[in-house]
Write a sequence for this structure.
């Protein structure tokens, strides 16, 4: 019963009464206290992309997925000794040197730009899943909290020729969700666990206005979840249609000169289209 209320609260089509909202919060706390993992996916969700790397390929044109690798041979590779869903995962590595630079920056990223059904736009409602693992502590750096660029970006929803609308990054050893330039919320406090698969789910009602909504939660595979994060209000920089797409891998915007190499593993990249009417959960923790 608790889980049914939780599902209806996030993805229902009607606003809920205060009593039901309080029940939702109580249920959420109950599930988290007993190690319930991740945001629930509603039955009405339509799967658009379900990606793993079991075939050993970085580029999957049939799914609209391409790896944009710099010239270094080890910048983007497949490791079939460690996967979240199966045996294989994608490794993105960035070190110092021009061979690890792509499009003028230190990055090794993959994207779903050519999957047109996965492109988001004003009014669209999507559910995203990704899994990642930090193989070591190389991305857990001391960083200036006020420096916008001092971050390791591992997943982003962005536009053509522009900055991301939202992204996930390792900032001062914590996992954070950044929404445009207006706010940042912590999904996992410092330090992010190393050598453990971590799942992240994000439900998004995309909008340039106050009706925008984001719900995000991280959880250890086989373990408990960190608290749900809610953000209400604008989560898009503009309403240009069908120009938003996903990227994942490693982008290090603040590094220069000589710096230690850093890497990350990704697996289980999923995108779902949600039914209309993504409703706020009403836990009282939302930020605008």
């Amino acid at each position: 019963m608790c889980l049914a209320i939780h599902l209806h609260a996030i993805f229902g089509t009607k606003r809920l009464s205060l009593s039901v909202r309080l029940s939702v919060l109580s249920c959420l706390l109950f599930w988290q206290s007993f190690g319930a993992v991740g945001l629930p996916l509603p039955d009405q969700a339509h799967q658009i992309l379900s990606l793993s790397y079991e075939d050993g390929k970085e580029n999957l044109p049939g799914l609209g997925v391409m790896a944009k690798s710099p010239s270094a041979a080890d910048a983007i590779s497949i490791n079939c000794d460690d996967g979240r869903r199966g045996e294989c995962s994608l490794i993105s590595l960035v070190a110092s040197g021009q061979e690890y630079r792509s499009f003028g920056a230190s990055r090794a990223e993959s994207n779903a730009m050519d999957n047109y059904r996965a492109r988001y736009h004003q009014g669209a409602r999507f559910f995203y899943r990704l899994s990642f693992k930090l193989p070591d502590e190389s991305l857990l750096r001391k960083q200036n909290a006020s420096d916008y660029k001092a971050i390791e970006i591992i997943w982003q929803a962005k536009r053509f020729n522009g900055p991301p609308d939202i992204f996930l990054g390792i900032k001062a050893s914590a996992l954070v969700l950044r929404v445009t330039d207006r706010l940042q919320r912590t999904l996992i406090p410092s330090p992010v666990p190393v050598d453990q698969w971590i799942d992240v789910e994000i439900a998004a009602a995309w909008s340039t206005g106050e009706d925008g909504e984001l719900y995000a939660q991280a959880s250890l595979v086989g373990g408990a979840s960190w608290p749900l994060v809610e953000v209400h209000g604008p989560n898009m920089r503009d309403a240009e249609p069908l120009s938003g797409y996903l990227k994942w891998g490693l982008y290090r915007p603040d590094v220069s000169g000589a710096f230690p190499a850093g890497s990350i593993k990704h697996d289980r990249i999923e995108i779902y289209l949600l039914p209309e009417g993504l409703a706020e959960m009403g836990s009282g923790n939302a930020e605008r």
Q: What stands out?
A: Residues 38-273 form a domain with the Jelly Rolls fold (CATH 2.60.120.200).
